[in-house]
Specification:
single chain; elongated; 76% helix; 86 residues; 3 helices
Length: 86
């Protein structure tokens, strides 16, 4: 049987793994919206400050832009979770 420290570490690792999966899912949803609208991100890193400004100027429908903004808020929360878990 693992000791308490090992069990705690295992739970933290599992939580971090779930956060990685959630982050990937969010990024894939944003990529999906861009793909549906035939918008190629080229070589721009979409999830840094410059990429966020670039995404703000995209010709998306209002509901899609709202979805992207909502996903970005969720992504920011997941990224904050990493600092806690690490």
């Amino acid at each position: 049987m693992p000791d308490e420290a090992t069990e705690t570490l295992g739970r933290v690792v599992a939580q971090r793994s779930q956060t990685v999966q959630q982050t990937t899912r969010i990024k894939n949803r944003i990529h999906g919206i861009l793909h549906t609208n035939v918008i190629a991100p080229d070589e721009i890193e979409l999830f840094v400050a410059f990429g966020r400004v670039w995404r703000g100027s995209l010709p998306l429908e209002r509901d899609e832009m709202l979805a992207v903004r909502r996903y970005l808020v969720d992504l920011d929360q997941r990224l904050a979770d990493f600092s806690i878990l690490d």
